[in-house]
Amino acid sequence: MALETVVFQQDPFNYSHKDCNFYNLETFHDYGNFGYEGYNWNSSIPQSYNDDDNNNNNNNSSPDKYFPVESTVVSGRRKRRRTKCAKNEEEIRNQRMTHIAVERNRRRQMNDYLAVLRSMMPPSYAQRGDQASIVGGAINFVKELEQLLQFLEAHKQIIKTNQQHIQYNPLSKFFTFPQYSTSTAATNNEGSTTEERRSAAADIEVTMVESHANVKVLSRRKPKQLLKIVNWLQAMCLTILHLSVTTADHMVLYTFSVKVEENCELNTVSEIASAVHEMVAMIEEEAMSC
């Protein structure tokens, strides 16, 4: 009968620290110490082994003890927390109350001013009570008052000149610094000579604030003159916001409030005045040729 030898390979990972303990020799005393009586076994055992002996109660010891894992140490300075200057609650409350009081006072003053404006105008100029309607109605009312003043002043000057037998244009007094003037007594302005002012086709004055311009034109009345001027202004990208017309005898005064659009080629006062003068001269030439 043949015998076969089978060798079972033992898994090395199944060994525990208790199976490999060669230092706990106190059990030999139970078997007669094998002739080693009186020998101090603990004297030659290092302290580290004794410490390991006390921790062998658990067969499944943690592998981290024998194969320690390197711990990642995060280095860096700890950020300082900035201390916020907290305001006192009483101070914050006082500021809030002050702001509310100022805002309430401002609104009250605005309502008072709007009420005064509305009381000074006829009801037809501010049919609605909102702020935009009241302010817009006030602007239109002031424009009409200006036109009425020009009309009354013109007739007053006509009566005065007729009594004194003096030739005088009553509407010319509404020009302060005209760029073009037909009056022989007009003073020089912006380097223009007297001959240039005498040859002007009309009295023209242009004032400008940002993108808004005020254009005054004083000339002799011609057929379809106003229609041609309005069409020309619109063609030159000058949007008419307000228009007033005042006549005195054979003279007429046009006052335009226009807005200069972004695509307009006329950007300065002198450019607008020069273009308006050329346009009025062309209208007069067309009227004379007819």
Shape: elongated
CATH architecture of the largest domain: 2-Layer Sandwich
- Mean pLDDT over all positions: 72
**Assembly context of the chains:** single chain
Q: What is the name of the CATH superfamily of the largest domain?
A: ACT domain
Unreliable stretches (pLDDT < 50, length at least 5) are: 25-39, 57-61, 184-198
- Portion of residues in beta strands equals 5-15%
How many distinct folded domains? 3
**Could you name the CATH topology of the largest domain?**
Alpha-Beta Plaits
| Biggest β-sheet: strands ordered side by side in the sheet | 1-2-4-3
Give the count of helical stretches: 6
Helix amount = 25-40%
Give the structural class: alpha+beta
Based on CA atoms alone, the radius of gyration comes out at 53 Å
Tell me the total number of β-strands: 4
Give, in order, the helices and strands. HHHHEEHEEH
Q: Please write the CATH class name of the largest domain.
A: Alpha Beta
Main sheet properties:
4 strands, antiparallel
Distance between the termini: 151 Å
Domain BHLH: 94-145
Keywords: DNA-binding, Nucleus, Transcription, Transcription regulation
Region (Disordered): 47-85
GO cellular component, one term: nucleus
